[in-house]
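Model it.
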Amino acid sequence: MAGMSVLALLLALLCGCTSRTLTVESEPTGARVILNRREIGDTPVTVPFRYGGINEILIIPRPGGPGAQPYKPALVYHDTWRFALDAPFVDALAEIGGTQDHQAVHVTLEKNDFSALVEDERTQQDMLAGLRARADVLRSRAREKFIAAPPRDAPRKSGGAKK
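Modeled.
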């Protein structure tokens, strides 16, 4: 019994700290990062992570200035489960001795190519004119229904006769 206690105490003293960090980078930088449905900051960003399992990383580009080419958002699944030497006992010893595990995810965001959606500039102008006409119709319907609607009559009170 005393031998088991000494062994347990010895193992507790030998245990080291394991540090795990995940860095998310993007090209272009400054994109918003959402890790497992929680916003963690803008790229590049480094956060601690839990070992084992798959992390869902959503990268949303920030809108640029005038004339800037917009980028598409990206969804990446990063598996943090990896064996250093494909030997479970080596990983167990590394856990006892303390290790640093730094993993990085780098994503190059794709550019949106709006010009590829339509063949020529005239077609683009026709599409915009149609969208503007539809927006005008929807605005007028909203005004008719919510703004220009006649007021309702006040409810009549039932009850006694006037004296």
